[in-house]
Design goal:
heterodimer; A: alpha+beta; Immunoglobulin-like; Cytochrome Bc1 Complex, Chain D, domain 2; 3 domains; five-stranded mixed sheet; 11 helices; 42% helix; B: mainly alpha; Cytochrome C Oxidase, Chain A; two-stranded antiparallel ribbon; 66% helix; 1% strand
Chain lengths: 370, 526
């Protein structure tokens, strides 16, 4: 407890005036974001003006009409004229508010004529991005939180983008109308980037639409905003907006890397290569539920597990297909053959499991086909 | 006093078998206060974890159990039963009736509550933990992905619903049939009016909630797919059903609070309530509108734009009758003869802070802006301004106002004022900064947050500890009053108080109005 509270005076009095304490909505970088911001400020100021006027009357009354000042109560208790006025006037103010609200809403809903479609799928607890391409050569990848457990559990200093950093961000071109098709694989999530003013629920069985056109290059960060289970707070959204040329180059590189990976799947890898990559995969895909030392948590323990140390095909089936009705997902949709082989090898040899089994990408391919 | 044909039984059976509206009201009030402390304890765990970034005290899964139970216990265990308790004590005394119309059902509707909450709280000790899907329990997180304890949660909700429906039927039957001669509907005190309307809301929407949890039960145990997309069901259907219950529910919570404030402000302004008739119509309008605005909780689910526009316009309309009420309260104070005893302080606190929550509600009703506000701390700040500074402040005001009539002893005015100021300041330190972090982009229901939110979260936590501690002071004040408060024997404890409950002896005897009084003048006039 001492450690938790020792920082109080310092944090309160030293850093409180720091510019990092944003108190208002971000106008963001997009046209819609600016429109929403203006609407927000307009409604807020109308509320402030009404509030100040109404409470000025109340506080004047509290000051002037006190019993302790000898004020005698008058006994009036109705006035049809006044009552009609304060029903009609607010109604007119509301109509004035509804006009800009309606036009902004129609803009938000204008999903037509997108130049690029990205399918966003919420998974517990990561986002999958898939660029839909008419050629059929879709680029697809998962975007995982990279903040290390040590920072979350306070054994290491927290980085600048604590909890808002991922291994692979969504990359989109600037000045291009990008349409997001948003869905989910398990429970409901919600994809939000405040600076783009895009928030849409990701719902299993539904595909929601949203869009953006980002005028300037930059990195925009957001989070899942619908409670989606234990690690709801740990599935950030990071968007890189790059120039269209840079985006083309990035796409080409991604396609090249995908081909190289499929080549790799045909090869035989060394135990060291598998273990190294397996560790990396474990630390993004498995660690949240199964623990940094394989000790378990939400999921079962990996260390000493009879499944992991037992029959390979059963172990592989659970990792690839998941366990229905539990948080254990089907990882064949998320990991390629090399990654699956590596993580199986790692689990069977790390944490004192030491089975000595080596799983090759070809074994996984065979299993999936068989 | 000598002709008391029977008084209360003695010992525990008095409380177990009682059909007396005052005893049952007392039990409801104590039970709800116990639940308020329990839900408050969960809130303290939440705020302690959020004191600093990083995980310190609890694990993320347990944090979600805390937010879920905090919401459920506060809404269903603290606020709703507290107003039912108040209704039990006051409605018969306000309309000149000897008791509630259905006294045995009254006993039953209270006594099924403690087992229901015992069952809900026991889920904390079950394998897989307590429900962790938020008090709004959206499917499929609450069905396919729920811990096994969800079944106990479903049965607890069923029992709470049964209790609420029985309580409301009782109130409707009492108000409709047992008013004293001359007590026409438009002479009833505002508190009775707001509760009558609330009771109709409860009877209308509690079965809808029961339907939602029953469908969950079927999905979980009997292979149906109401809410599972994989089986042809619809997860969004759950949200429509839930909020068809949930939006009237927030008015169920706030309307009786309006009623309380409409009793207290005139008493300490020594002036009749301004615009009694328009208050009644405004309350009825709010109740009606509450049925056609539910999807404003769902602006981001991907509704067609026509749906969004309908729900936006309907929601904005609620500002009109709510505004009428606020204007009426302030006009009641205008040119009155004001004094500021503790009940009045809490009522003015209610008026200011509830209105602030109303303004943020209006902002949230604007659908395009809601794309930025939705599911952030801005929403958390908004509904705590209406739920805590609204319902809880009003309930606190009610306790200070009527406690002397109930127990024949006066609370300590200075202690009451200290309680008010600590509550008021603590509340605002807790919840005002949450507007800021919400607008700056902090989602709700997260156990850990990015570094730019750290300072305001620490402030919020400190405020929460202050506000939490002030409730222990409240408990002390109530007990000290009952045990050793200065005795009062005036029938009218407050010189400005109006209404039949102030015509019976102080403390109110076990049976009142065995002979109906004759009511001639309208409610609230001098």
């Amino acid at each position: 407890m001492g450690r938790i509270f020792s920082g109080v005076p310092l944090a309160l009095f030293a850093s409180f005036t720091a510019a990092q304490n944003q108190v208002n909505m971000s106008p963001g970088v997009t046209e819609i974001g600016a429109d929403i911001f203006e609407l927000h400020m307009l409604i807020m100021w109308i509320c402030v003006v009404i509030g100040v006027a109404v409470f000025a009357v109340m506080f004047y009354s509290i000051y002037a009409h006190r019993k302790s000042r000898g004020h005698e109560a008058s006994q009036f208790h109705e006035s049809t004229k006044v009552e009609i006025a304060w029903t009609v006037v607010p109604f007119l103010i509301l109509i004035a508010m509804a006009v800009p609200a309606t036009s902004t809403l129609l803009e938000v809903y204008d999903n037509d004529e997108a130049e690029l479609d990205v399918l966003i799928t919420g998974h517990q607890w990561k986002w999958k991005y898939e660029y839909l391409d008419e050629t059929g050569e879709n680029i697809s990848f998962f975007s995982n939180l990279t903040t290390p457990q040590e920072e979350i559990y306070n054994t290491e200093a927290k980085g600048d983008h604590y909890l808002l950093e991922v291994d692979e961000p969504l990359v989109i071109p600037t000045n291009t109308k990008v349409r997001f098709l948003i869905t989910a694989n398990d429970v409901i999530h919600s994809w939000w980037v405040p600076e783009l003013a895009v928030k849409r629920d990701a719902i299993p069985g539904f595909i929601n639409e949203a869009w953006t056109r980002v005028p300037q290059e930059g990195i925009y960060r957001g989070q899942c905003t619908e409670l989606c289970g234990a690690y709801h707070g740990f599935m950030p959204v990071v968007v890189h907006a790059v120039s269209p040329e840079e985006f083309q180059a990035w796409q080409a590189a991604k396609r090249g890397a995908a081909q190289a990976e499929s080549q790799l799947a045909l090869q035989t890898l060394s135990a060291d290569e598998l273990m190294a990559q397996g560790k990396a995969v474990y630390e993004t895909a498995c660690v949240a539920c199964h623990g940094a030392q394989g000790e378990g948590g939400i999921g079962n323990a990996i260390a000493g597990s009879s499944v992991v140390m037992g029959d390979l095909s059963q172990h592989m089936a659970i990792v690839a297909k998941g366990v229905a009705g539990t948080a254990m997902q089907a990882f064949d949709a998320q990991l390629n053959e090399v990654e699956l082989a590596a993580v199986l090898t790692y689990q069977r040899n790390a944490f004192g499991n030491n089975t000595g089994d080596i799983v090759q990408p070809g074994d996984v391919t065979g299993m999936n086909n068989g | 006093m000598g002709d008391h044909h029977h008084g209360p039984a003695t010992g525990v059976t008095r409380w177990l078998f009682t059909t007396n509206h005052k005893d049952i009201g007392t039990m409801y009030l104590w039970f709800s206060f116990a639940m308020f402390l329990l839900g408050g304890f969960f809130a303290m765990v939440i705020r302690a974890e959020l004191f600093q970034p990083g995980m310190q005290l609890v694990e993320p899964a347990f944090f979600n159990q805390m937010t879920t139970l905090h919401g459920l216990v506060m809404v269903f265990g603290a606020i709703m039963p507290s107003f039912v308790g108040l209704a039990n004590w006051l409605i018969p005394m306000m309309i000149g009736a000897p008791d509630m119309a259905l006294p045995r059902m009254n006993n039953w509707s209270f006594w099924i509550l403690p087992p229901a909450f015992l069952m809900l709280a026991s889920t904390l000790f079950m394998e897989g933990g307590a429900p962790a899907f938020g008090w709004t329990f959206y499917a499929p997180l609450s069905t396919t992905y729920a811990p096994p304890s969800v079944t106990f949660f479903i049965f607890a909700i069923h029992i709470l619903g049964v209790s609420s429906i029985m309580g409301s039927i009782n109130i409707i039957a009492t108000v409709m049939n047992m008013r004293a001669p001359g007590m026409t509907y438009m002479k009833m005190p505002m508190f009775v009016w707001t509760w009558l309307i609330t009771a109709f809301l409860l009877v209308a929407v509690m079965p809808v909630l029961a339907g939602a949890v029953t469908m969950m039960l079927m999905d979980i145990h009997f292979g149906t797919s109401f809410f599972s997309a994989a089986g042809g069901g619809d997860p969004v259907l759950f949200q429509h059903i839930f909020w068809f219950f949930g939006h009237p529910e927030v008015y169920i919570i706030i309307l009786p609070a309006f009623g309380v404030v409409s009793q207290i402000i005139p008493a300490f302004s020594r002036k009749p309530l301004f615009g009694y008739a328009s208050m009644v119509y405004a309350t009825a309008s709010i109740a009606f509108l509450s049925f056609v605005v539910w999807a404003h909780h769902m602006y981001t689910v991907g509704m067609p734009v026509a749906g969004e526009l309908f729900f936006m316009y309907a929601t904005m309309l609620i500002a009109v009758p709510t505004g009428v009420k606020v204007f009426n309260w302030i006009s009641t104070m205008w040119r009155g003869s004001l004094s500021f005893e503790t009940p009045m302080l809490f009522s003015i606190g209610f008026l200011v802070l509830f209105t602030l929550g109303g303004f943020t509600g209006l902002m949230l009703s604007i659908a395009p802006a809601d794309f930025q506000y939705h599911d952030t701390y801005f929403v958390v700040a908004h509904f705590h301004y209406v739920m805590v500074a609204g319902a809880v402040f009003s309930m606190t005001a009610a306790v200070y106002y009527w406690l002397p009539k109930w127990c024949g002893r006066m609370y300590s005015e200075s202690m009451g004022k200290i309680h008010f100021w600590i509550s008021f300041i603590g509340f605002n330190i807790t919840f005002f900064p949450q507007h800021f972090v919400g607008l700056a982009g902090m989602p709700r229901r997260i156990p850990d947050y990015a570094l730019q939110f750290a300072d305001f979260n620490m402030m919020s936590s400190i405020g929460a500890f202050i506000y939490g501690a002030s409730q222990l002071l409240f408990l002390y004040n109530v007990i000290a009053t009952i045990v050793s408060g200065e005795r009062v024997s005036d029938e009218k404890v407050w010189d400005g108080a109006e209404g039949l409950e102030w015509t019976v002896p102080t403390p109110a005897p076990y049976h009142t109005f065995e002979e109906p009084p004759l009511v001639s003048k309208p409610a609230g006039t001098f």
